[in-house]
Amino acid sequence: MKKVFVTGATGLLGANTVIKLLQYDYSVIALVRKKSSWMGEENKNLRFIEGDLFSDISEYLQEVDTIIHIAAETSQDLLCYEDYKKINYDATVHLWAQAAAAEVEKFLFVSTANTLGYGKSGVPGSENTPQFCPFTHSYYAQSKLEAENYLLQQNRGTKIVIVNPTFMIGAYDRKPSSGKMVFWAWEKKLVFYPKGGKNFVHAEDAAEGLIKAIENGKNGEKYLLANENLTYKEFFKKVNTITGQDPIMIAIPNRVLSFLGWIGDGLRKLKIKTNLSTSNMKALQICNYYSHQKSLKELGIQYQSIDKAIEDAIQYFIKNNKH
């Protein structure tokens, strides 16, 4: 039985990944802040270690085949790059050093699609497309890209595989995190939507992609875990159809989003935390679309529809009284 060490096990992707690993008969050690945060069932092949990303985990890595590093700082309201760098870069370097010292076979780093250049519906972005604006101005995306570049420069025994998920929707969204996008339209009489769009993927499929990357991922390669390219209007219409509602849909003018971004920049200069910023508002105005051809061909992932992802997310929220 292969043993995997996982960080970020209590988040959306982490929970789905641990559940999948156990289904595939992997033995899992999960680093968590609190064991009580685990949302899944107990399992004889699942062991929790309480600590943080800077803990000494070397004693747990002696028989580990793969580390899956999912934990990250994903907040959009932090004020400076160092706030992201500490978790997304420094902690990654720390974990990598321990993995290499323990001669772990593979280090699987979960990054983001936004470290790669996006495209349009006819020509979506791929693993070979370099990052560009507005994500070159995103502290989160830049910290992830810095970690990617560091890992790819390493030349030691432990193999490096990087996965780049797009926007994930699904069950086990405890906070919720990306599931807030569902709440944007769910049970609303008016739905205001940006004119842009993005790529969406079922969180369960992204978790499947991580396991496929353990088995089939090539050293030094990146893999987009992506599925459907949708405008925000198209996504919200899916939410409306699935929930049986028919709200009034109103487009938000790009100039309004740009104005909100300028306000956010001003607030940030005053050291006030806010999700508003020029780069965040610009991201809502563009269609940042991606291709999943490489993950289909090399990893062998079979993607589910985003309708199914939305249904699973909504059922989870209802079951856990989060709506």
From TrEMBL:
Cited InterPro entries: Epimerase_deHydtase, NAD(P)-bd_dom_sf, NAD(P)-dependent_oxidoreduct
GO cellular component: cytoplasm
Entries under Pfam families matching the protein: Epimerase
GO molecular function: aldehyde dehydrogenase (NAD+) activity
Domain NAD-dependent epimerase/dehydratase intervals: 4-224
Cross-referenced PANTHER family: NAD(P)-BINDING DOMAIN-CONTAINING PROTEIN-RELATED, PROTEIN YEEZ
Protein name per Swiss-Prot or TrEMBL: NAD-dependent epimerase/dehydratase family protein
